[in-house]
Amino acid sequence: MARETVEPFNPAKELLLPIITHGLPYPQACAKHLRDTLHCSRPFLVISNSLSKNTDAIERLRPALDSGHVALAGVHVGMKPHTYYSEVLQVAREVRGSGADCIVTIGGGSLIDGAKAMSLVLANNANTHQELDALFRATNALRHGQPTAEGGPRTVHPSSIPVLSITTTLSAGEFNPPGGSTNDATDHKQVFCNPAGVGVSVIVMDPALARTTPERVWLSTGLRAVDHCVETICSSNPREEGTRHSLRGIGLLIPGLLEIKQGAGDDAEARLRCQLGAAESMKAANLYGVKVGGSHGIGHQIGPLGVPHAETTCICLPAVQKFNAKVNAEQQQIVLGAFWSDPDIAGALTRHNLVKGQADLGDALDAIIRELGFPRTLKDYGIGRDKLEAIAESSLKDACCQWNAIPLEKKEQVLEILEMCLGDQ
């Protein structure tokens, strides 16, 4: 019989949300925590288009909910990547009209950000693009102790209905209270945050369901979680507690990703380790305020040029670490030590002819990314030298670049990193 493990995302606050559950099949876990943790009985389901079309995910969920006296209030299939305002407003209207008392997502990051946005919209009665944009901007201002814009809301009500997410990727947005939503008119991605500080209340991990995720998506989002770990260990403001969580994340993620790529061992067990590693990857930033850096900041700018969000890590992370090595070599050695002390990771490094004590962190990351089968350069994605100036200028406006171990304040600094990423030598 399946045994459930339930743990708080924040180990110091055992009674507070969010919680993580694994061990039960997702239909049973969902029904149990809707009823017993969230005290909800009318969930509105938002499910990815691919899972709806290619799996029996909904059919498996319904009887489990019925047996717990929980009934779906409605279902919405699919949301476009980047969580556009228009869809947030559309689905929020569906949720409001259904009389739902919570939102359940089955899928990846766009759905999760969408659900977080909808809950905030419903609490604050935002019905137009302008009202939604003003609301999101107000949440950011209040979060940073700044005055809200003229004409915007003076107060923001906390999200009104909880979100339960059944996760199928490793991008880890479910552990992040803020979310991002894209303005249809400008294509600008606006960050927002529930004033109560909770994004998703219950995170359900089911590695059997995660097997339906395409391998490239699984591995690339796993590398994105590795990026969270590396950049927080090598941060401009590292914290010992955060580093412990990030090292634990590396130890779960990279061996699990290698195992899945090689098709060795128990796939479900490796996927669960990856899921738990993704949770660890977010703790330094979310529990201890540790900043990420240039890989995230520059990656945000190359994503719109046709690089899948998670794969920006494959291009940026090694180069950023090489650039930063002059100021954080000691922190980079912590990561390298973790790599070489794990036999699976060390084996991958050795297969790429790296030698312990000689290879730097950028080289080691390059080897791991190549071992998992990903392109490494801008050229591989059709991005040429003619785009570098615009990428660099845009990067300077990104907070993550300003938080980099060497603050990226000049275009020439970003161009130096991008030259390492170009791949036209």
From TrEMBL:
CDD domains listed in its UniProt record: MAR-like
Keyword annotations: Oxidoreductase
InterPro entries for the chain: ADH_Fe/GldA, ADH_Fe_C, Alcohol_dehydrogenase_Fe
Ranges in a coiled coil: none
GO cellular component: mitochondrion
SUPFAM superfamilies found in the cross-reference section: Dehydroquinate synthase-like
Domain (Alcohol dehydrogenase iron-type/glycerol dehydrogenase GldA) ranges: 32-196
Lineage: superkingdom: Eukaryota
UniProt key word Phosphoprotein: no
Pfam families: ADH_Fe_C, Fe-ADH
GO molecular function, a single term: metal ion binding
Span of domain Fe-containing alcohol dehydrogenase-like C-terminal: 220-419
Protein's name according to its UniProt entry: Alcohol dehydrogenase 4
Organism: Cytospora mali (Apple Valsa canker fungus)
Lineage, highest ranks first: Eukaryota, Fungi, Dikarya, Ascomycota, Pezizomycotina
